[in-house]
């Protein structure tokens, strides 16, 4: 019954894209995902207790990394991307080398089927390969710095992007846990560190976290890319002490 | 020393150079052992998270197209294994004591110090399973652990009953470390008993009640009690262990108490582990005065992750076999290069500088070993 239900839901979630193999997705999910995300996709697998941040609850339908509007479900390609690249700074590893493209799609489809159902949402941000990246330049970075200040990004991320803004200590996620804003100087971008990844994060926001969508605040493409280039420019190569004592992503 | 005694001394040393748990990995990641192992107090079969960790976080290279390897054979059965093959070179040592030359013959040999198969049969999902840790080598097959596991209890509680490894201190990989050797809490010494534990908040507590006969026949009168507890955070653990083992017989009183403390710290790539134990052996044979021997064993270890899949480790050990006797201590310094070249494969090269009093010449033999460790 459950498999039939999921199959019908999956056909909805992936109707605009190539359908995923649900049975295969279930097997891959059991082997790779269930221990953290739980058999029912509620983020409460047997290994979840020790993890920080906690594994995503797929049932809620709130996904951080999407190319859709804030509050919408992600597309199948969004989940494929996350499963493939992993999430830096967390225990979600990259499965790119472990799973075949077919398995990535199958397990991503199975993950989507846990969440709320409905029409396939519209893509807000084009796929990375289709995005036109405006070139980086000192002028763009200066424009980005001004936007960083006017949009009050420093309230959370700090005036120099160290994640130490005045609101940093009170920022909480949808589980009620304090979730420190990203320290741009370390550059462990959870949603990916390429210009296209950072662009997508600005435009769509990260659902379930205090990071809102800036798509409406930044209607001009030039402004979006200026902020992307400025924020990425804050990343510093680690010195010895940061290499030794600083945060690392275990699977990287 | 006769050839037979030389051979026996070498065999004893080689037998001790067996490893089974990797607490430095748990400390490095800020986890308890149970994050990766079915056995809540560590060692033995890895769970699904441990298998994922072995494929994603440990290896230097991840060949494409291997697929996700899982220990699960369906919904209710999962398996695992540890096989170690090592080449050991032991130094030949001659020392002069009391006008007489003493010699410990060295040698080099290829051996399989560990070949274990694991199985877990889930009876009630998330609550009850049967666990088997079967040693198939070296020297014949035997169950290292065979237990009924009950888990999913309040406060992350669990219970296990059967043939178990007793929970004491850090479960170091190296059974030749003095804190494993002198205390007797190592992977060669199991017992029949019951273990319960819980991990409420930042604390952890484990207690076992066993026959106290290292798995032998029990007279059903005296038991061994073993307790380990402490606090932990992302940055490390601080805890203590205590064991009471009463082996009194009609011939007289025999009691061994072991008390120790341990602490770990994790600073990103740098991991520190330490443990100190006091072993108190009390005997009072019938008609004879009471005697008490106190031993002290200390261990300190620093592990540095150079890059993903490559680490170096230095471990220091100190053992005083009788605190009442001066200058009878021995020391041990082990330096290890550890590489996980591929998923489920580890290669280590270890040089152990051993120092002991002149008359215990076997304890002065340095050892170099290269080990290949395949696991699931």
Keywords:
heterodimer; A: 252 residues; mainly alpha; Cytochrome Bc1 Complex, Chain D, domain 2; 2 domains; 0% strand; B: 376 residues; mainly beta; Porin; 16-stranded antiparallel barrel; two-stranded antiparallel sheet; 4 helices; 9% helix
SSE topology:
The complex is a heterodimer of chains A (252) and B (376).
Chain A: H1 2-13, H2 22-32, H3 34-37, H4 76-85, H5 101-112, H6 138-150, H7 154-157, H8 195-204, H9 221-233, H10 240-245
Chain B: H1 3-16, H2 23-29, H3 48-56, E1 72-73, E2 77-90, E3 93-97, E4 100-104, E5 107-124, E6 128-137, E7 142-153, E8 157-165, H4 178-181, E9 190-198, E10 203-210, E11 224-233, E12 236-246, E13 252-267, E14 270-285, E15 291-307, E16 310-320, E17 330-342, E18 345-355, E19 367-375
Antiparallel strand pairs in B: 1-2, 2-5, 2-19, 3-4, 5-6, 6-7, 7-8, 8-9, 9-10, 10-11, 11-12, 12-13, 13-14, 14-15, 15-16, 16-17, 17-18, 18-19
What does this structure look like?
Chain A has 252 residues and is mostly helical. Chain A has helices at residues 2-13, 22-32, 34-37, 76-85, 101-112, 138-150, 154-157, 195-204, 221-233, 240-245. A 16-stranded antiparallel β-barrel of chain B has the order 2-5-6-7-8-9-10-11-12-13-14-15-16-17-18-19. In chain B, a hairpin with a 2-residue loop joins strand 13 and strand 14 (270-285). Chain B has a single domain, classed as Porin (Beta Barrel), CATH 2.40.160.10. With 376 residues, chain B is mostly beta strands.
How many beta strands in the DSSP annotation of chain A?
0
The assigned structural class of chain A equals mainly alpha
Beta content of chain A: under 5%
Tell me roughly what share of residues is in helical segments of chain A: 25-40%
What's the β-strand tally of chain B? 19
Radius of gyration of chain A: 18 Å
Shape of chain B: globular
Average pLDDT reading of chain B = 89
Approximate shape of chain A: globular
Radius of gyration of chain B: 21 Å
- Mean of all residue-level pLDDT scores of chain A: 87
């Amino acid at each position: 019954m459950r498999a039939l239900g999921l199959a019908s839901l999956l056909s909805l979630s992936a109707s605009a894209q190539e359908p995923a193999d649900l049975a295969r997705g279930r097997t891959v999910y059991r082997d790779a995902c269930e221990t953290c995300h739980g058999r029912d996709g509620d983020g409460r697998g047997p290994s979840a207790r020790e993890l920080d941040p906690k594994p995503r609850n797929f049932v809620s339908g709130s996904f951080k990394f999407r190319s859709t509007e804030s509050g919408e479900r992600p597309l199948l390609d969004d989940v494929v991307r996350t499963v493939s690249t992993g999430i830096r700074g967390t225990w979600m590893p990259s499965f790119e080398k472990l799973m075949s493209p077919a398995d990535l799609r199958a397990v991503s489809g199975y993950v989507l089927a846990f969440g709320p159902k409905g029409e396939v949402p519209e893509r807000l941000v084009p796929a990375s390969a289709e995005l036109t990246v405006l070139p980086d330049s000192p002028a763009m970075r200066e424009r980005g710095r001004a936007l960083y200040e006017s949009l009050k990004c420093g309230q959370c991320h700090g005036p120099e992007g160290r994640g130490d803004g005045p609101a940093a200590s009170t920022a909480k996620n949808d589980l009620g846990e304090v979730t420190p804003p990203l320290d741009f100087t370390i550059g462990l971008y959870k949603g990916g560190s390429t210009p296209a990844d950072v662009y997508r994060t600005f435009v769509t926001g990260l659902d379930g976290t205090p990071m809102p969508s800036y798509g409406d605040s930044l209607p001009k493409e030039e402004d979006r890319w200026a902020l992307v280039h400025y924020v990425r420019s804050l990343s510093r190569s680690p010195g010895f002490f940061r290499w030794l004592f600083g945060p690392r992503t275990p699977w990287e | 020393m006769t050839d037979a005694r030389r051979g026996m001394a070498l065999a004893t040393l080689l037998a001790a150079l067996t490893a089974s748990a990797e607490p430095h990995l748990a400390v490095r990641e800020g986890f308890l052992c149970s994050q990766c192992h079915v056995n809540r107090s560590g060692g033995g079969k890895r769970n699904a998270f441990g298998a994922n960790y072995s494929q994603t976080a440990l290896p230097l290279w991840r060949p494409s197209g291997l697929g996700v390897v899982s220990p699960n054979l369906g919904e209710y059965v999962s398996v695992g294994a540890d096989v170690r093959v090592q080449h050991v070179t032991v130094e030949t040592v001659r020392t002069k004591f009391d006008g007489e030359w003493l010699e410990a013959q060295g040698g080099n040999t290829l051996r399989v110090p560990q070949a274990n198969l694991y199985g877990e049969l889930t009876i009630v999902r998330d609550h009850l399973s049967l666990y088997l840790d079967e040693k198939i080598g070296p020297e014949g097959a035997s169950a290292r652990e065979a237990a009924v596991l009950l888990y999913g209890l309040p406060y992350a509680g669990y219970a296990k009953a059967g043939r178990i490894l007793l929970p004491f201190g850090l479960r170091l990989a190296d059974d030749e470390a003095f804190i494993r050797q002198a205390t007797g809490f190592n992977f060669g010494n199991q017992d029949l008993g019951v273990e319960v534990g819980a991990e409420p908040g930042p604390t952890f507590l484990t207690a076992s009640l066993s026959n106290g006969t290292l798995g032998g026949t029990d007279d059903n009168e005296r038991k061994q009690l073993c307790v380990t507890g402490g606090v932990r955070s992302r940055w490390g653990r601080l805890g203590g262990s205590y064991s009471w083992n009463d082996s009194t017989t009609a011939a007289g009183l025999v009691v061994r108490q072991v008390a120790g403390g341990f602490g770990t710290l994790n600073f990103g790539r740098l991991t520190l582990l330490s443990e100190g134990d006091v072993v108190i052996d009390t005997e009072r044979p019938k008609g004879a005065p009471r005697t008490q021997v106190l031993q002290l064993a200390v261990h300190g270890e620093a592990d540095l992750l150079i890059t993903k899949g490559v680490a170096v480790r230095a471990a220091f050990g100190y053992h005083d076999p009788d605190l009442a006797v001066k200058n009878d201590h021995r020391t041990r310094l082990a330096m290890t290069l550890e590489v996980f070249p591929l998923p489920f494969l580890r290669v280590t090269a270890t040089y152990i500088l051993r120092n002991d009093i002149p008359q215990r010449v076997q304890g002065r033999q340095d050892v170099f070993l290269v080990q290949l460790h395949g696991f699931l």
